[in-house]
Amino acid sequence: MTDSDAPDDAGHDPDHRDGRDDRGGERTTAADADRSDADRSDDERRELLRAVADDVRGESSESRQVAAILYRVSDLYDPGEDTSPEEIYLNVRNIVNVKERGGLRRERTEE
Length: 111
Fold this sequence. Notes:
DUF7976, disordered N terminus
């Protein structure tokens, strides 16, 4: 398994595209975005964010990064996740910083 095939930090499988949510129900589609956010339940918000993440995920590292961020934001609406907007911000900032540095490679010091 390569890094791009591994679940993201929140444990979401990046290749989960079978059209069903984790409970086996129908996955919300990006077309559902037309509804007013005030009319949505937390479950609907979470599913919409995850559906959009699935739609934008592609072959590029940037699209995978955006999808991972959307999944991370969707965790705000997941009662099984213990997270806050501050934690998500810090996590996303770390992802962006690592990306700007070119990855998680550690510099080796000469001994």
